[in-house]
Amino acid sequence: MSLVALLIDPLAHGFMQRGLVAALLVALVCATLSCFLVLRGWSLMGDAISHAVLPGIVVAHLLALPLTLGAFAAGLFTAWLTGRMAAASRIRPDAVMAILFSGMFALGLVLFLRVETDQHLLHILFGNMLGLEWNDVTEIALIAVPTTLIVLAKRRDLLLAGFDPAHARAIGLPVGRLDSLLLILLALAIVAAMKAVGVLLVVAMLIAPGAIAGLLSQRFDRMLPIAMGAAMFSSLAGTLLSFHADAATGPAIVVFQSMLVALAIVIRRRKARSGATA
Amino acid sequence: MKNRSSQGRTFSPGLVVSDLWVTYANGVTAVCGASFALRAGTITALVGVNGSGKSSLFKAIMGFLAPARGEVTLSGKPVREALKSGLVAYVPQAEEVDWTFPVLVEDVVMMGRYGRMNFMRIPRAADRAAVSAALERVGLAELRKRQIGELSGGQRKRVFLARALAQESEIILLDEPFTGVDVKTENAIIMLLRAMRDEGRLMLVSTHNLGSVPDFCDEVVLFNQTVLAQGPTATTFTEANLAEAFGGSLRHIRLGGGALHDDDDDRRVTVLTDDERPLVLYGPRDAETLVKRPPEEPR
Amino acid sequence: MDVLFEPFAYSYMARAIAISALVGALCGALSAFLVIKGWSLMGDALSHAVVPGVAIAAIAGYPFALGAFLSGLLAAGGIALLRRLTSLKEDVAIGLIFTGFFALGLLIVSLRPTSVSVQTIAFGNILAISDADILQVLVISVLALALLAMRWRDLMLAFFDEAQARISGLDPWRLRLLFFALLSAASVAAMQAVGAILVIAMVVTPGATAYLLTDRFGVMLGLASILGAVCGAVGAYASFFLDGATGGLIVLAQTGLFALAFLFAPKQGQWRAWRLRRAAKAGER
Prior knowledge:
By secondary structure, chain A is mostly helical.
């Protein structure tokens, strides 16, 4: 089979077209956000929110509301509660976060088994990339594209608020509101990614691209395109691999990202060494 | 001036550092060729700028860093052996301690006894007695059931002094014991250190609180990667030596004779400080060059 | 009344309750250390990182514990290596490694479906645990608990004050290695009970609850261990009536107790803080 056929053949299938479009959209929004999360020291906030969405989905189902709305609300609520509880007690923030998101996840799990839904639990957790319908893809696009655009439009403010909050405040930026905005955008990205890669693996997509970009460039403006490129390449490669090798799609994408991280480390070390000798 | 160096320099073996070199894995040499010897029953100040290798020296003395060359002996024994017999106690800097850790005052002091306990570290009556005695001595007996974070800055310091006491060590290393401590506590700690000295213990105090050094230290080691000067405080802790040790990194205020008074006394007042309690020197004209306290309010 | 005792009539239920309590006790004890050191994320990382080891061990026919243990150590080494080779922050390094390992594990399972299903890895399956697995969990838990009972004071000293630990003749590095070995082993055991995703609660929540209730580490350790055991037993017992979601129920019990302590702990509780604030305000007036 030629290389071109390797790439083209899968696209003859409708489910592959839909899966690929979804994977690229998710890659785009997650990569954009990951640059900020990595710099802000929030890389594990994604982990917390993504686990916490589960009870929201069940409750939304019970109330006949859109599932994404429930997921979004539950995720955001947990992030807010983490901040409040960490400030009020002597438990460290990392422990508060771990307790809350695992508690929410457990609640979701128990509720899920008590409530009849048409949702498949494993699809929520691990995604169902190759089983998406066009209306799913449209929904992902409707969340992912505006989210990406807002992040890009506000990138300088978000960057400054993350890098030097005191200075940002001094020049009149509403730092607290920018943090909230970033949280909201993060929750949106997770909700968008949920159907494609599942809530468990979206964490990886929210860390790796930013880390790759950070390793390869010291300049933030270059980090964004690098992160997007790396994430989209991984999505493409992972989706194709899952087609040809009959492997789970989400994990395949993440494994490709991990390989790119390793590659970025090698390149970084090469550069540092040649810089040192020059 | 309290100065014990006149008792002569016959050494009962205390802390001996000879030709010590410490090199880190990344190739940075922190200590190069340091040698000095300290007697039991003295308090010595280890004075040097930040990054002068003071803490590396401490680590080498406590055996945390293996010297690249040279050796350290404690009461005549090599480091490893000395640690095994509980000869060395260490009073950490306040910043090194996690004050939210769920331990009571008495728990921390009990940690000084671990080296003497059995495999399971279950305290015996002797251990409890030593802890109570140590707490009594530093005046924390009433606060023994408090969590350490609930103490004031000075009380926190005293907990770790009590631990050193409970450990019954001959050699005590103190890392910046006066940082963040008010004058009253500082004096209380100094009294305690003096009493411990009179029991024959050896104390090495790393400090950049220059002003208090003449108050309680018998000896001074000026340090910057190696020993720049060592000797009795009166003769070693001089403006010239300090200038060499600190280079330009101290705030240095000089007031010439004319600005202070009308006679023809040509001494100058020198204030050396790195923003802790300043060291004030007025002289030189005779051997007693060290003014103990700073003037009221410098104008 | 009989209904309440019904679970004990089934040997699989009695076994599940006993094993959950045992694993809960072990994880609870370890959680005391994780919480005070701020290492919660390491607990999360290890529980995810053991998954590829479990998958490979299942394919190759080795005991899960062995594979999990090795891949847990590999992940811990990987995090250390990442930190050394790059300037990445710790949370990023931890996140990269554990998501990468987790994804690799899932990929392997999807390529070579075996006795370990994704479902078992994600949620555990204590109600249908095999005799061989029970033996593994028993050996791990009893050994680890015995080790902890003997060495907890040394671990406490090493975690609280490394310098003093060394001066007392302890080796903090060896103790740290011991701790992470115990944590890896406990993660494997806990994975069987509640699944990889919820192990984090087992190794964090009881310790945090205990931390709100006492100022003494020894008490905290015992309390965390008891809380872990009780929640393990209660969750497993309740799952008889609630169709199987054992892991979710165990963790819900733990989270519930944490919430109670958070609100009503005698010294650290919010209720007391609120009353004190009100009293202060009234005093001002």
